[in-house]
Amino acid sequence: MIEHHNGKRKDHVDVLVVGAGLSGIGAAWHLQAYCPKRSVAIVEARDAIGGTWDLFRYPGLRSDSDMYTLGYSFEPWTGDKAIADGATILAYVNRVADKYGIRRKIRFGHRLVAADFDSTAARWTVTLETPGGERRMTCRWLHMGTGYYDYDQAHLPDFAGADNFAGEYFHAQFWPQDLELAGRKVVVIGSGATAVTIVPELANRGAAHVTMLQRSPTYMVSHPSVDKAANRLRRLLGDRLAHGIIRTRNVLLQQAFYQLARKRPAFTRRLLRKGLLRELPADYEVDTHFNPSYNPWDQRLCLVPDSDLFEGISGGKVSVVTDHVDRFVAEGIRLKSGRLLEADVIVAATGLKVRLLADARFSIDGVQRKLGGAMTYKGMMFGGVPNLSYSFGYTNASWTLKADLSSYYLCRLLNRLAAKRQTIAVPEPDPQVQAVNFLDFTSGYLQRATAVLPVQGDRGPWKLYQNYALDLAALKYGRVYDGVMLFSGQAERLPPSPTLTRRMT
After folding, report:
1. How far apart are alpha carbons 86 and 76 in whole angstroms?
2. pLDDT at 504
């Protein structure tokens, strides 16, 4: 739809989705399925679908969750591996976009830089940077599926003497595609999911030796990449029916283990340590390199598919060093202990730089609103901010589980607005609700981003549960009219589908 404003032509849609990664493609599917009379467009800053899975190109890129839960609820995962490589995941997202006609809704090379909500007109005006210059669009509802980290920058500590290093040095987020590994010594700085992925892959690609240098240990657990039981069930029941059963099983197992870790941390620590003792050589210093000071699930556990990291250690191709960087020297890294780690290549797997809603500027009736520090509603909207939602997945389970629920709730909300012939939905802030940190996680990248992230409340619906069962109850089956969400505005032009509205509410 094209509208005119002050003599200038501007695009207008009912719902504008920002981002064409896992979250954005999933949101578009839900809007097509449950709000079919609303026009939808997606704007994507880059030139490709896939978000993370298209951006990252480092060796061994893979999921750190099983694909039955990281994949969509509406599209069965049919790959043989439950822990899949990045290329296979990217192909899956593209297949979904093509199968359901979502690709034609995407406007590539459109970066959101600002959005202003007009309360009188009940619409957002968004400013987009495009290859052809600045452009504006309007929409009734704005949904952000942009993830939570900066694609253009990563977290790179200012290591002393970095310019002195004679070899190649870069952050894993910006992997050089022409890197030669054969016969070279590699040091990977970090011990999170990225490092755990890269290290064994580099060893298998011909590096002379790979060292994982960590300041402190991370909890790790081995898991087979192929789910044999799931594959048997798929052959027996077919992909779609089996997908639902396997997804439910995996959700229950994830939540059960997480609750065990939170309620009985000492027991869980012993359980994880026992698993490592089975994987590593008998004389290995497990308590030096794999015994964190924090409790399990204070940070995300690192998944080691098919024990590849542990096999590299056992085979002598991989070493783990627990120490601090003193400085870079021409030959490699001088550690605080005085030891020299020789290297031809140094890879910084030192974490992400978090940003909120793509760092876009938001305003209401011309008055800027800073959403960092704002209180989140149901983990997908902000108190006092109308017609704006976002996807933010779980830190203790698969991202898409929460993203799917958020998209479903968005459709319920839009259909209720249409049924009542209203145009604005806004959660009313409650001064009695106490603000607490957005995430109860001690991971460095989240601690660094405290000022950037929103906050949650100490009670529902402002509380961020990190619990699929509670979110399922609230977002899929809970009341839309909950005494907090306020509705106003003039009548919509398009009524909802009565059948879909009844089915969703």
Report:
1. 17
2. 60
